[in-house]
Design brief:
The chain is built from 7 helices and 2 strands. It has a single domain, classed as Winged helix-like DNA-binding domain superfamily/Winged helix DNA-binding domain (Arc Repressor Mutant, subunit A). The chain has 188 residues and is mainly alpha-helical. The protein has a two-stranded antiparallel sheet.
Length: 188
């Protein structure tokens, strides 16, 4: 009897055992850049591995979560704004998600000059499973920082984000239908 090996499992195991470099460079700015980038990539990979177990990618979970909780009619352009993505990349992602029966798109019609995006029952179930996986990941990672440290990190990352936004000459605003002063409530 031949042994079947799943190549993606082998790759995942190799990645788990890979050594990562602790890059402390002679330039403080470059060290900060490298640390932020490396942390993002590692967090993203951890999310990918957790979500793979429930059959979804981080990008698809983000779209499903938005579809589930957005308080108004959801459009492709609005998904793009929330995800900081161009509409054409969102359209490609939605094409794949529609094929998988996770979302539906209701085309433009009289009085509605845009395409609406809606969650299907299957999409709701996949979203629920994905949120459980992400919440579990966060519960493992978050205790590394106290609440005060998390607030400080949010402040520092916010300052970095503002600097990049200024460099790109884009505007950062709150989504419509959300309070300008209150935190956006998340439904786990």
């Amino acid at each position: 009897m031949a042994l079947k090996i799943n190549s993606s499992q082998v790759i995942d195991e190799v990645i788990k055992r890979e050594a990562l470099y602790d890059l402390r460079l002679s330039d403080t700015n470059l060290t900060t850049w490298a640390l932020v980038r490396q942390t993002y990539l590692i967090l993203y990979r951890a999310a990918e591995l957790r979500l793979k177990k429930v059959g979804i990618t981080p990008e698809k979970l983000a779209v499903l979560w938005i579809c589930r909780d957005y308080p108004d009619i959801l459009t492709i352009a609005e998904i793009g704004r929330i995800l900081s993505r161009q509409s054409q990349s969102v359209t490609g992602l939605l094409n794949r998600m529609e094929e998988e029966k996770l979302v539906t798109r209701n085309p433009k019609r009289k009085g509605r000059p845009f395409t609406e995006v809606n969650l299907t029952d299957k999409g709701e179930e996949v979203c629920r499973n994905g949120i459980v996986a992400i919440r579990d990941l966060i519960s493992v990672i978050a205790p590394a920082l106290s609440e005060a440290d998390q607030q400080l990190l949010q402040k520092l990352l916010g300052a970095l984000r503002q600097s990049v936004i200024a460099d790109l000459e884009v505007e950062l605003t709150r989504p419509p239908d959300f309070s300008a002063v209150e935190s956006i409530h998340i439904k786990w």
